[in-house]
Amino acid sequence: MGKFFLGVIFTVVVLALGAFIVANFGLVDMRADQTPSKYEKRFAMGAMDASVDRHAPEAKNPIEPNEANLRDGMHIYMMNCAECHGDPKTPESPMGTMEYPPAPQFMTDAADMPENQNFFIIKHGVRWTAMPGWQKSLSEQDIWKVTTFLSHMEKLPPAVEADWKGTPPAAEPGATETKPATKAMEKTSHHHM
After folding, report:
1. Could you tell me if residue 128 is inside a domain?
2. What pLDDT digit, counting tens, does each position of 19-60 carry?
3. Which of 135, 101, 125 is nearest to 52 (CA)?
4. pLDDT tens figures, 111-154
5. Closest Cα to residue 152, out of 56, 61, 53, 50?
6. What is the distance between the alpha carbons of residues 82 and 69, in angstroms, rounded to a whole number?
7. Number of domains in the chain
8. Which residues fall within 8 angstroms of residue 179, CB to CB, at 6 or more apart?
């Protein structure tokens, strides 16, 4: 038993020393313009999923997915998230694809985690990525609204869908033409999400 215990301690010390040498002698290539390896992707995504599963509180989304809330969530997304995660005009964000690791592109890979987990990620961010925690600049209600929008992005009401895609909604007889809300969004400043 004593030799086994010493063997385990020796192995841990050697691994720690090896990690210290690799990190502190510049043997890890820290450039962000590389593609993460399959092992790194699998390890990092598995670690993030396990962390979110463990730490995200079980919470029910208090925001009803009605047209007004989805439109508000879309506006928050356009102002804070689209630059990295894409939108209908730029399905693959140049900014997001240049990050290390690349930001998920929600036009081609929907945010399909449970709402409580998406809320947790938006609120707290993801360490060692470009995803910041938004709790200091967005209210909890706004974080829930963008969470609701992400959950319903592929099945929006027609008027919100028209705003989202920047196309005028089909005019009803006697209705006046409305300008898509996304036009106003183009003039707002962008932040990263």
Report:
1. yes
2. 889 889 888 888 888 888 898 889 988 999 999 999 999 999
3. 125
4. 999 999 999 999 999 999 999 999 999 999 999 999 999 999 99
5. 61
6. 18
7. 1
8. 168
The reply to whether 26 falls in a domain is no
Burial class of 85 by CB neighbour count within 10 A (0 to 12, 13 to 18, 19+): buried
Q: Which pair of structure tokens corresponds to residue 105?
A: 């592109």
Tokens representing 49 are 């999923």
- Is residue 84 within 8 Å of 130, Cβ to Cβ? yes
On whether the pTM is more than 0.90, the answer is no
Among 76, 65, 61, 182, smallest CA distance to 138 is for 76
Domain containing residue 77: CATH number: 1.10.760.10
Q: Domain range spanning residue 103?
A: 65-170+177-193
Q: What is the CA radius of gyration of the chain?
A: 22
